[in-house]
Amino acid sequence: MGKNKLQKRVLDSAKEFIAKEIAPVAAMTDEKEKFPLKNFKEMGRLGFLGIPYPEKFGGAELDYLTYATIVREIAKVCASTAMSVVAHTGLAGNPIFSFGSEKQKIKFLKPLALGEKIGAFGLTEPNAGSDIAAMETTAEKKENHYILNGTKIFITNANVADIYVVAAKTSPEKGMMGISMFVLEKGTEGFKASGKKEKKLGMKGADTGELIFDNAIVPEKNLIGRKNWGLKILHQTLVGARIGMAAIALGISEGAQKYCLEYVKQRKQFGEYLYHFQSIKNMLADMEMNTSAADLLLQKAAVMKDEGRNVTKEASEAKLFASEMAMKITKDAIQIFGGYGYSQDLPLERFFRDAKITEIGDGTSEIQRLIIADEIIKRPT
Amino acid sequence: MKILVTAKRVTDPDMKIKVKEDGTGVEMSSMSFKVNPFDEIAIEEALRICEDKGGEVVVVGIGSDKAQTEIRYGLSMGADRGIHVSAGSELDSDAVARILKKVVETESPDLVLLGKQAIDVDDNQVSQLLAEYLGWGQACFASKIEITENTARVEREVDGGIEVVEIDLPGVVSADLRLNEPRYPALPAIMKAKKKEIKKMTPADLGVDTTPRVVITQLAEPPQRKGGRIVEDVAELIKALKEEAKVI
Ligand SMILES: Cc1cc2nc3c(=O)[nH]c(=O)nc-3n(C[C@H](O)[C@H](O)[C@H](O)COP(=O)(O)OP(=O)(O)OC[C@H]3O[C@@H](n4cnc5c(N)ncnc54)[C@H](O)[C@@H]3O)c2cc1C
Ligand SMILES: Cc1cc2nc3c(=O)[nH]c(=O)nc-3n(C[C@H](O)[C@H](O)[C@H](O)COP(=O)(O)OP(=O)(O)OC[C@H]3O[C@@H](n4cnc5c(N)ncnc54)[C@H](O)[C@@H]3O)c2cc1C
Q: Which of A12, A61, A128, A378 could, after both became Cys, cross-link A135 (CB 3.0–4.6 A)?
């Protein structure tokens, strides 16, 4: 699948920024567990944060494939930064873009796309992860506003965001069908990020926190779409986000692979370069085959999405395969480096730690398998 | 304020280059290209001046059709329009300066800003030749530029300090490394650059004869560096420096 000239120019320009500004601070971002605010703001100025959205909403008006490609390029050097971008552009931006009113798009999507404000997406709760229907946060209608009560956890960008897209039950008796989506601003009465910063295995530079709703007062005009449209909005948002997560997983794999290909030509043991040994060759071959396959699944899902087709299955396939391969490839990469791979002097151990979340976020691998199976079972035979 | 800036297509300075086997040039097939880094600085400066004072930035590129990529890069940084002078073969500095003179005559800019040299051949001659052919003042190797009503006050880094020169406008200024840090083009600007005008002309249209006056006869790789040697004592070192290295 060829890229046109313009996409290439966009990508070349992005690559230069990534190599010169993001790569040099990646290790520090991880070690200090510090959200990369400066680069995030700069990415906003450069149009990285609104790639798939129209110009009138501050976007670059490019396709989803370009978006996924740039996320992947970022993840090759710093997955934490890529994760923050995806939560911002995909998870927070997409519900507003796809279901929000014109006014909401101008007020909320535009500053997100321009990077003037940072976005977060709140779905997960202490008792509701994979099981969305178990959601306990409620939104009760009072006059011309809603009162939100509940807690959201594991929310990317929670402590750095200005705009939050959150799910709450407006009709709890309807279970899954009684969920609505709201957009909240930082400073909304009764709403705050708790300030707790999750200490994590990987993606340490991405901010992860909690949101507390204690009789939060949300104007009716901040409802996204219609009342009880939550499930539909969440479905579309998560399908899109899985393409982003697949891009992160593939980027991490490619980042690790690149190091391996250099190292096997530099390191000698038993008088031979490592690439000489068959067991090393096997790992290199599997890495290449699996990144190529993940690349094809990702491109297929992104291109189909750009064509406006339903990509429920394709997005799950891309995410599931790319994330499981990211685990395998980063594990093998450490193996190829031996003791050096285990050391924090090189980024291989960081790639390995960062890879794991791609099997969990935006739906776990188990859930992706359920989705894929359900999609093919309902096919007419 | 109308500023004419140059954008030369050069080999990517981050890539290793290889001399062709016959020594007549550099192996181009596997190279990637970009806009000359000094030209990028010149474009950035032109944009800053016009953002401050208002005006128009016109980017000129000379070369094959591929040179349009670098002109577009300038446009995506924010320049207003481009001029592409198509030239098939590699031109010498003198031909480039004579072409630019003609472009200047058709465009009548208030200032011509160029990179001090192109990082491929490092000739460092075009700005000086151009100023001479135009009969304009020149201020080369600028590390700071201040534009007033009709003069440019330019600081240049020289050994042991800063030299300040002032030239009348219109004039020619060339950009040194520390003049500024060029911006990265924003993605929407790259999209918009696609629609900006690039006017195409040929040296013949401009009445310039590009027959080379300088011919490259031979290129060679620098000699391989040999490994060092540890000497026993100072006496041996002095002897080696005298007799082997012949430097003292
Ligand atoms: C770093 C990080 C960032 C995150 N960012 C966000 C964010 O920005 N916004 C947000 O809303 N959430 C976010 N999350 C939450 C994430 O989406 C959830 O962790 C994920 O959906 C899984 O939910 P859970 O952790 O509650 O696991 P559970 O749902 O409790 O799952 C536990 C295990 O049981 C399995 N399981 C559950 N149900 C089934 C089933 N039916 N069949 C088979 N197996 C099943 C799961 O696959 C898993 O292996 C983030 C999480 C992390 C760690
Ligand atoms: C936390 C930690 C603690 C350690 N503690 C100690 C210690 O207390 N004392 C000590 O002496 N050492 C210690 N080590 C070093 C450890 O034993 C070595 O890292 C290990 O032996 C591998 O050597 P290497 O790292 O040089 O990898 P290499 O030997 O360079 O191997 C790199 C890769 O090439 C593969 N390879 C190499 N040769 C072949 C071959 N012929 N055929 C197929 N594949 C091959 C390896 O399997 C590996 O995948 C420690 C290392 C770590 C990370």
A: A128
User: Mean pLDDT of successive 10-residue segments in chain A (381 residues)?
Assistant: 73 93 97 97 96 95 95 98 98 98 98 98 98 97 97 98 98 97 98 96 98 98 98 98 98 98 97 98 98 98 97 98 98 98 97 98 98 95 83
Q: Fill in the DSSP letter of residue B206.
A: T
Minimal-distance CA residue to ligand 2 atom 28 = A338
Q: Containing H/E element for B174?
A: strand B171-175
ipTM confidence: 0.78
Q: How many A×B Cβ pairs under 8 Å?
A: 41
* Interface check A45 vs B, CB under 8 A: yes
Domains of chain A: 5-118 (1.10.540.10), 120-228 (2.40.110.10), 231-377 (1.20.140.10)
Confidence (pTM): 0.89
Chain B: residue nearest A45 by CA? B186
Chain A residues lying within 8 Å of B185, measured CB to CB = 13, 46
Instruction: Quote the tokens at residue A24.
Output: 């040099």
Q: What is the CATH number of the domain that holds B89?
A: 3.40.50.620
Q: Would the CB of A269 count as within 6 Å of ligand 2?
A: yes
Cβ–Cβ gap B184/A47 under 8 Å: no
The gap from C-alpha A15 to its chain's centroid, in whole angstroms, comes to 19
Residue B212 maps to a domain: yes
